[in-house]
Amino acid sequence: MLACAFFLTLLSAGAVWFFQLHGWLLWYGDAEAHLNAARRMVDSQTPGYDQLGSVWLPLLHVLTLPFAAVDSLWRSGLAGSFAPAAGFVAGGVFLFAAVKRIFRSNTAALAATALVALNPNMLYLQSIPMTEGIFFGCLMALLYFSVRFRATLGWGAAVGAGVAACLGALTRYDGWFLIPFATAYFLWAAGRKRWPGEHRGWREARPWMVALLFAAVASLGPLYWLAHNWYLTGDALDFYRGPYSAAAIQGGKPYPGHGNWDAAFYYYQTAVRLVAGPGLPLMALAGTVVALVRRVFWPVALLALPPAFYVLNMHSGASPIFVPNLWPHSWYNTRYGLAALPLLALAAGALVMAVPRNLRAVTALLIIVAGGIHWVANPQPENWITWAESRANSTGRRAWMQAAADYLSPRYLRGSGIVSSGGDDFFGIYREMGIPLSETFSVCNGLPFVAAEQRPELWLWQEWAVVKEGDAIERAVARAGYRQELRIVEKDEPVVEIYHRTGGHHGTA
User: Would you give the distance in Å from CA 335 to the centre of its chain?
Assistant: First the structure.
């Protein structure tokens, strides 16, 4: 196990170094946003708890906070790599331990773990400030402790699984989807065996007690987030139906798969193939048969739940997936296909158990080679769909961010202040410039900003303004006597305008 952790740590660190060296850590718009959300908790005109916001779940931001507080790590983007990378390493160790326990085979465990760990899409997502690496760690911990519980009926395993599920529910909303199914499993598993040393009268009570314990611990995550949303916005479901929710962002626009199960499944399985490569899904189909013949039902079912969640969300929610080889031939949410990778890896690892014991080491090696040969034959990053998405969707954004930073850097006097449109893309300008976010004034500062939009002549004193054309704050700075100095236009991007206050810096209000 220590050797597994050691090699996973080396692999993770090497991937982070590689992507940081090429400047790719913050190409995803969401990566920039997650990093700056953590930074605002300690660096803002209104720092503190409220900067967690109401839509994105908090665990990534909280874990990133200590690193984002360090200027050099924040500016480079490395601050956002520590938590996902740690989740990746922990997830790999738990996956190895779980598969070893399920099949009683080190070689099956090695094959399954390698298929996940060597996937370039996983290595990219675990290197940047995104939630996939952390959720992988939580899901694999839930798998391990639930499998351990089936064998030991230990209360510690139930608590460990509950903690893993709770942390997963504070990382991604698919974590919420797991909890009722896992509760049902604990109820079933606890009732399958007689509890050692117990009186006959406890036999019926114990399954309910252990399932209740798991559910109570796991549900702390969703219950906390509902309470947090109510405290912050007055609506416990603001994350689901508020102005910044996925439904609001989608705005009711139709997309392939919405209301169509066949299209939803087809688009999702296409994303899975692009994320996993062509060989792994084929091996997983055969391996699933082996796993089910060996009565490995719960691990397959648990790892199938996140993919099922995304198909359901495409059909009935507001989360489209676009892949370049299907209409509308663009990139969006391709990383959701990564949710199927642990299932494919476990199923492919099960193939080791289909051969005689003396052939298992060679079989494991062949499985790893078959799963990875596509990436070796096509090593260019353009073939990594998640990286390709980050590049395709960030070209214009990175251009206007850099143009704004280049223009302001030689002209901005520290302390003179910047009025800014909302959105973490704009905070990326100030990160590039290396100025504290406390010198910026935006919608993230709450009621004072709302007051400034309404009465800019009273509340806007900052020397500079960086705004999106059409924003309410654009109209406010015009009313407050700011003069436009630069207009940045990039294809398929919002028009960004830089204003300078006529008469210069007026001091704080």
Answer: 9
User: Does residue 507 sit within a domain?
Assistant: no
Q: What is the SS3 string spanning 46-96?
A: CCCHHHHCCCCCCHHHHHHHHHHCCHHHHHHCHHHCHHHHHHHHHHHHHHH
What residue ranges of the chain have pLDDT lower than 50?
Answer: 195-205, 504-509
How many whole angstroms separate alpha carbon 338 and alpha carbon 360?
27
* In-domain check, residue 491: yes
How many other β-carbons are positioned within 10 Å of the β-carbon of residue 264?
24
pLDDT tens-digit readout, 461-486: 999 999 999 999 999 999 999 999 99
The answer to whether residue 488 is domain-embedded is yes
- Domain of residue 456 covers 395-501
pLDDT of residue 232: 95
The whole-number pLDDT of residue 175 equals 98
Pairwise CA distance, residues 45 & 439, whole Å? 7
Distance of CA 509 to the CA centre of its chain: 39
Looking at the domain assignment, is residue 53 inside a domain?
A: no
Q: Are strands 440-441 and 464-468 parallel, antiparallel or unpaired?
A: unpaired
pTM: 0.95
Name beta bridge partners: 441: 419
Task: Quote the number of domains for the chain.
Answer: 1
Cis before 328 (ω within 30): yes
- Beta-bridge mates of residue 418: 440, 464
pLDDT at 193: 60
Tens digit of each residue's pLDDT (9 = 90 or more) over 368-389: 999 999 999 999 999 999 999 9
Q: Provide the pairing of β-strand 464-468 with 496-501.
A: antiparallel
| 464-468: strand order across its sheet | 440-441, 418-420, 464-468, 496-501, 482-488
- Phi, psi (5° rounding) for residue 383? -90, -5
